């Protein structure tokens, strides 16, 4: 699932936005020769996703697809007629596996009998789905129990998950994208830049000649992609992956025009990367400060980082984000973990104590 955290009141004085307003939902705008920005509607509080359409010889290459919904199909049908004027889709590139980015991937690929391009880990992630049924399975229940929630709180997540799940029409084959692969699309050459943390191997496309970066969810102007730990990999350290990715993206020119998956294209890449780093560093500092008073569960620490939760969905995402910061600090040797009453408790490591962030085995 895709989750994004809104930063209210964030300063953006060093970011510039070439377009004051986005295109209307279902409409396009040319942002560079042969590059169209398509605003696809979403049925969420975050009510849109930006897709990018790239001219190539006698057809088009599509970057990301929208949710697998009737509304998305209606928009695509209009694009086929009014924008593509009957020219075919020649390839579809998925930046990552989340529903809003890859929901229509198989539908487009099958319709035009064209290849899907994505990284290996993102393709594999298409087939990892939440457990089915109304009753939580043992791994799901145990994960949130270990976080410090009671059985009623855990049970409240399941109906919400079934309601928010969107089927992804996954293609039966794909062509793998790797770091530094080069794609010649039209007259432009794009280099693949891989990010990680928000998803396993998030694909971005960088055009050096035209200073364009199709960034997906990796770099956004006002919101930051959720960096969270889920039941699928409870010992993961996505925040470590995310921060390492940001350092790599800083090697790109600051003047690049960033074409994000949400909100408006912008310039000021290095300033925005600095903001994202500071945001997570502040979360890490807050956790270590609070834990000076004694060990805590994830559930107890969650409202410290996210005090304005509006419901079960917010709680689910906030728990995963909080655990991502905890797992980062554990891997850095800052925190220890003990199991008490079936819940993990996290505390500061004693001065000079050697800490290993390995999985504890309990039988």
UniProtKB/TrEMBL annotation:
Keywords: Hydrolase
Gene3D superfamilies (UniProt xref): Ribonuclease Z/Hydroxyacylglutathione hydrolase-like, Winged helix-like DNA-binding domain superfamily/Winged helix DNA-binding domain
Positions of transmembrane segments: none
Residue intervals of the Metallo-beta-lactamase domain: 48-262
Protein origin, superkingdom: Bacteria
SMART domains to which the protein is assigned, alphabetical: Lactamase_B (SM00849)
InterPro entries: B_lactamase-like_C, Metallo-B-lactamas, RibonucZ/Hydroxyglut_hydro, Sec-metab_biosynth-thioest, WH-like_DNA-bd_sf
Compositionally biased intervals (Basic and acidic residues): 1-15
Record-linked Pfam families: B_lactamase-like_C, Lactamase_B
A molecular function (GO) term: hydrolase activity
Region: Disordered, residue numbers: 1-26
Protein name: Putative metallo-hydrolase YflN
Species whose genome carries this gene: Pseudomonas saudimassiliensis
